[in-house]
Amino acid sequence: MEQPARQYNSEAPTPSAIAAARTLVIDLEGALLRSELLMEALFSAPARMLARFGAGGEAGMAALTRILAKAEIDYAHLPYDSDVLNRALVARARGEKIYLLAGRFPDHAAAIAAHLGFDGVVTPAGLAAGEALPFDRASVERVDRRSESRVSFKTWVKALRVYQYAKNTLVFVPAVTAHQMNLPTLGYALLAFMAFSACASGAYLMNDLLDLAADRQHPTKRHRALAAGDLPISSALMAIPALWLFALVASLCISPLFLGVLGAYLVTTIAYSLALKRKMLVDVVTLSGLYALRIIAGAVGVGVVLSEWLLIFSLFVFTSLALIKRFSELSMRESAGLADPSNRDYRITDLHIIAAMAAASAMNAVTVFSLYVSSSAVTPLYSRPWMLWLLTPLLLYWFGRALMMAHRREMPDDPIIYAFRDGPSRTAVAAMICIMLAAI
User: Fold this and answer.
1) Concatenated DSSP letters of 273-318
2) Which of 142, 38, 159 is nearest to 100 (CA)?
3) In 173-232, where does DSSP find H-type helix?
4) Angle formed at CA 365 by CA 359 and CA 366, multiple of 5 degrees
5) What are residue 100's DSSP bridge partners?
6) pTM for this structure?
7) Would you call 142 helix, strand, or coil by DSSP?
8) Could you give phi then psi for residue 96, rounded to 5 degrees?
């Protein structure tokens, strides 16, 4: 931090005169803004505008710069550094002038200064070259760039949503239900788990980049690493292809067919992020299909025949969970007094029908399971198939509890993660596992 230059004379100035003469100059990028203005403009510009500029060459970059300069950035929800803002408020209370220092995109910088109530914008060249400035150079106190620091491991864990890897344990389900628990099978299942986790993390980063504006206006999603400015957008752009490359290599180590399933998962995920999540109920069907693809991939990865009972049961289960997820998101907005979501084709008034559909899908899943237990398909796999009937009341309990918690606004955004964190849910799942093992 540079210290302000001081001039001395024979008469000591009053404190108010000193305050009035001082000027605080804040670096926009690196000090005030916890993000990169170039990247913010890039992800705020409409796709149709980005498609206009020519590829490569000086003319292409000039066209891109003009487009980014006109991007409609949401200045009110940019990730500003709270400490720097507080310092500016203190300076303003002392009567100091406040200017932003910006070397590019002067229109965006001026709009940010106006939004925050600052006095204007100066350029680094103007500040250093002795050009005319709207303040006395000797009175400047500058808040410059923070010391460059690497993104913490905790931030990467948060951005990659490692906690979501719990969903990818679904790739182990076909091996478990087929009673193929030998070491080679589990090894392939573990490799499939790693491939899906890397692929999903890349997709999460891409989704967060596309949803930056919406996430910053969301009560909880605004704390995500990219939305909050904890992870630079440029770092995410480099991590995405690296994660997908790892997933590709891991998939090829399993089989080309597994790579095809993973590719279908990635294409569907991208389509979901770009368009499908904005279409009513199409998003729910897509989410349930993405969960089912994990089970299909697990069967393909370990080389077991996928049971049609398992597949249809899973589709009903995941449809119910996807509907509970939407219900939780909408109910949270209702409780917070927020308007209908702008990036989803749902209204808060849809809550009752979504809850009814979630309950119906859950009960259908229990019905399918009951039909499976009463079928001849269980005889070759279980020596005591009658014990599987004990799973029915546990399934009814877990689905009923999830629906009740969502109705009480106590369900987080993701019901599957809730199942891993909720004590009664963990107990119910552990009991189910014990019953299945005893039935073998």
Assistant:
1) HHTGGGSTTHHHHHHHHHHHHHHHHHHHHHT-PPPHHHHHHHHHHH
2) 142
3) 173-177, 183-210, 212-216, 225-228
4) 90
5) 26, 121
6) 0.77
7) strand
8) -80, 155
State how far the alpha carbon of 160 is from the alpha carbons of 45, 173, 205, 222, 243, in Å.
Answer: 25, 23, 7, 15, 10
Strand partners, 33: 29, 80
Mind listing the pLDDT tens digit for each residue in 142-173?
A: 887 665 567 889 999 999 999 888 889 989 98
Contact 209, 43 (CB under 8 A): yes
CA distance 364 to 334: 28
Q: What share of the chain is helix, strand, coil (3-state, %, to 5)?
A: 65, 5, 30
Tokens of 252: 């090829």
Name residues whose C-beta falls within 8 Å of residue 392's C-beta, 6 or more positions apart in sequence: 366, 369, 370, 373
- Could you write out the DSSP letters of every residue in 370-389? HHHHTSGGGTTT-S-GGGGG
Residues recorded for the chain: 440
Using an 8 Å Cβ cutoff, are 29 and 172 in contact? no
Q: Which amino acid is at 206?
A: M
Beta-carbon contacts of residue 137 (< 8 Å; ≥ 6 apart):
5
Secondary structure E strands in 92-243: 97-101, 120-122, 140-143
- Strand 120-122 versus strand 97-101 pairing type: parallel
DSSP 8-state secondary structure symbol assigned to residue 23 = E
Q: What is the pLDDT of residues 234-261, one digit of tens each?
A: 999 999 999 999 999 999 999 999 999 9
Cβ neighbours around 195 below 10 Å, total:
27
> Which stretches does DSSP call E strand in 7-96?
23-27
Q: Which helix (H) or strand (E) holds 244?
A: helix 233-252
More confident residue, 305 or 113: 113
Tokens of 47: 């796709």
The type of residue at 421 is R
Sheet holding 140-143, edge to edge: 120-122, 97-101, 23-27, 140-143
Q: Which tokens is 88 given?
A: 């500016």
Q: How far apart are CA 318 and CA 296, in angstroms?
A: 14
Closest CA to 234 of 433, 22, 39: 39
Task: Report how far residue 248's alpha carbon sits from residue 215's, in angstroms, rounded to the nearest whole number.
Answer: 29
